[in-house]
Amino acid sequence: MKEELLLSNQICFLVYRLDREIQASYRPLLDVLGLTYPQYLVMLVLWELGQAEVGKLCSLLNLDTGTISPLLKRLEKSGLIHRKRSEQDERVVVVSLTDAGKALEEQALSVPQHMYSCLFHNAEEYVALKQMLGNYIDRLSS
């Protein structure tokens, strides 16, 4: 048996397991909001920016249009967002929050606080992990 081929030694598997655990921890919190994890990510962007073009959402979330379009349809059907073609360029779709989508932001405030308390003992741990992960993403994407 080759040590470097052990599943437990694979960084990708550890990251995969961590991702699954984090998403499982989010699930009950997001169920209360009526959101899936990918929908929550879209809402985070919209709460931050107020509105965004679909292309911008794809770029920020690292998703393609084939993945984000069904998410947006479900969010629109649930009354949280509006999609509208840009008046300047019909090819561009702008996504904005409805009043219900804006109101959901208040309910969502407890989600990051809960996750922070599950993962970190202090702010220094959070800052260090955020910087380390950002560095890894930069290295792999360059």
UniProtKB/TrEMBL annotation:
An example of a Gene Ontology cellular component annotation for this protein is: cytoplasm
Q: Name one Pfam family in it.
A: Staph_reg_Sar_Rot
Instruction: Report any one BP term from Gene Ontology.
Output: response to stress
Which keywords accompany this UniProt record? Cytoplasm, DNA-binding, Transcription, Transcription regulation
Chief place where the protein resides: cytoplasm
MF terms (GO), sorted A to Z:
DNA binding; DNA-binding transcription factor activity
Keyword Transcription found:
yes
Highest rank taxon of the organism: Bacteria
Which segments constitute the HTH marR-type domain? 8-142
**Localized where?**
Cytoplasm
Give the protein name, as stated in the record. Transcriptional regulator, MarR family
The record lists the organism as Gracilinema caldarium (strain ATCC 51460 / DSM 7334 / H1)
